[in-house]
Specification:
By secondary structure, the chain is α/β, with parallel strands linked by helices. Helix content is 34%, strand content 22%. It has 15 helices and 20 strands. It has a seven-stranded mixed β-sheet with strand order 8-7-16-17-18-15-19, sandwiched between helices. A five-stranded parallel β-sheet has the order 10-2-1-14-20, covered by helices on one side. Strands 5-9-6 form a three-stranded antiparallel β-sheet, with no helix packed on it. Helix 1 links the parallel strand 1 and strand 2. The longest helix has 20 residues. The radius of gyration is 23 Å and the shape is globular. The mean pLDDT is 93. The structure holds flavin-adenine dinucleotide. Flavin-adenine dinucleotide binds next to helix 1, helix 10, strand 15, strand 19 and helix 15.
């Protein structure tokens, strides 16, 4: 990486983006597209941050660190992928269909009808057999109320937890256990008695009660990293920028009181630019701050954002035990099963079943050993899907993401900052920035685009860096 001569003021088109996850890459791509010269600096050997995949060296299956699912309402993510040319690597399951099972053998299906949105979800819920007719009507009424509150009185919901809001709306324990809580934990990554009702209302409004296409389950046909990392890097480099992995930023260095002058790398080198975007998690940002900013209230309040873990257990069996793609487990510790064989057409050389189990909001379990977690998941699988009892376990992999996302509690709404900081040329991106959404891929991309827009606004018109063919 070139060390830039300190006597030469950086070109106003030069931007350093720290962090190569969805937020950093989407910010860098938006800026490169607008003619800026961008340097993306990533600490790890590979891009992708908390959304990455790798190929199983033995069987060849693609393993995602946490079975990432996007939804049809991830419009800014889709725009980002269209720009870098990989949108066609997505699969849209337009007709949402989830199998729900309980340990007593009861089963039900949430399956969207062919009606236009949001009637497709009304029909899906009205046919959901795990709830009584009265409970289904009550769920729909509560959903309508949540959407109205999200539009009219969001700040009231910001101070209410999901469980308190549902209680106030008269939702029965059964409706919570069999519908609301599985939905809330999966989309918010937090227990309902801590998660903010405002965020649930936003998800409900955007994902389930918008257009029919908004509620589609969307996933990558290729490994998650292959969906966006290399294509984003190529896009940036063709426009005069560069992407450096294995390049951790040690700290930001100030130039006067109100501007960052350069980033100092872990190997002591420095990289200058006219503008800087931090696209790292909040804790990593705090670690990069120079001494004068460490007591600045704008930054110190970020220490109050709490993390929420996700555990993903990947299991290979000697046979397939279900043909459903997604199965929600009701009343067990394991929450969702993703049947990789039904989701992906591509498979490695292994023939049997490949299942991924997800436990979100897993604070109480994350310190358990991998063996304990595998036992727990298999126990739940055997209870929920009896056909699995005869299947032989071939191998398993447990991935614990202790800092998977920020906890979307009521406090977090107040604590999440926007893109601007008290430093004129430092902007923030990351799924944890205030986007009105839970910390998701879409939130990361929205924040990246917002930080890029803030840089563009600050710099004004530029003569673009030429594109290399
Ligand atoms: C297990 C799991 C399952 C998930 N499931 C879903 C899902 O189904 N749907 C969904 O939408 N979202 C899901 N998410 C959330 C989603 O992965 C994140 O919201 C998103 O990836 C965050 O992107 P980001 O760019 O904000 O942060 P990150 O991906 O964390 O990127 C930040 C980058 O900064 C780098 N960095 C940190 N410090 C430095 C430094 N000093 N110098 C240089 N680089 C640095 C890091 O290495 C990292 O690559 C899931 C997350 C996890 C962990």
């Amino acid at each position: 990486m070139p060390e830039i001569d300190r006597t030469v003021m950086p070109d106003p088109r030069d931007v350093v983006v720290v962090g190569g996850g969805f937020a950093g890459l989407s910010a860098a791509v938006a800026l490169a597209d607008a003619g800026f010269r961008v340097a993306v600096l990533e600490r790890k050997p590979k891009l992708g941050g908390r959304a990455y995949s790798f190929k199983d060296p033995e069987g060849g299956d693609w393993i995602d660190n946490g079975q990432h699912v996007m939804m049809g309402c991830y419009t800014q993510t889709f725009d980002f992928l269209k720009k870098i040319g990989t949108y066609d690597k997505l699969v849209f399951r337009d007709r949402i269909e989830m199998e729900m099972v309980a340990a007593n053998g009861e089963r039900g299906r949430i399956k969207a009808g062919y009606l236009p949105g949001p009637l497709h979800m009304v029909s899906a819920l009205m046919r959901y057999s795990m709830l009584s007719f009265g409970e289904r009507v009550s769920v729909l009424k509560a959903g309508a109320w949540l959407i109205a509150q999200a539009r009219l009185r969001r700040n009231r919901l910001e101070h209410t937890t999901v469980s308190a809001a549902l209680k106030e709306l008269g939702q029965s324990d059964r409706a919570c256990e069999r519908f609301w809580y599985p939905l809330a934990i999966a989309t918010l990554n937090e227990e309902p008695d801590k998660a903010s009702a405002a965020l649930l209302a936003e998800v409900w409004k955007r994902a389930f009660f918008g257009r029919r296409r908004d509620s589609a389950f969307v996933y990558s046909k290729v490994g998650l990293s292959d969906l966006y990392c290399q294509a984003a890097e190529d896009f940036i480099e063709q426009r005069g920028g560069f992407v450096a992995a294995h390049t951790g930023v040690d700290r930001l260095e100030l130039d006067g009181n109100h501007a960052v002058g350069c980033v100092r790398l872990r190997d002591g080198k420095k990289v200058e630019a006219a503008n800087f975007i931090s696209a790292v998690p909040a804790g990593a940002l705090l670690a990069m701050l120079p001494a004068p900013l460490q007591d600045e209230p704008f930054f110190t309040r970020l220490t109050q954002l709490r993390p929420s873990p996700i555990i993903c257990v990947h299991v290979w069996l000697d046979r397939e035990v279900t043909d459903c793609a997604f199965v929600g487990f009701i009343g067990s510790t394991t929450q969702w099963l993703f049947n990789k064989r039904a989701i992906f057409s591509e498979r490695g050389s292994e023939q049997g079943g490949y299942l991924s189990f997800v436990i979100s909001g897993a604070r109480a379990l994350v310190e358990r050993t991998n063996e304990q977690l595998l036992d727990l998941v298999l126990d739940d699988l055997h209870k929920m899907i009896p056909a699995s009892r005869d299947a032989r376990l071939i191998k398993a992999l447990v991935i614990k993401e202790k800092q998977a996302t920020i906890a979307p509690d009521c406090e977090s709404d107040r604590l999440r900052p926007g893109s601007d900081t008290p430093i004129d040329n430092l902007f923030l991106a990351g799924d944890w920035i205030q986007t009105g959404l839970p910390a998701t891929i879409e939130s990361a991309v929205i924040s990246g685009c917002a930080a890029a827009a803030a840089v563009k606004k600050r710099v004004g018109p530029i003569s673009p860096v030429p594109v290399l063919e």
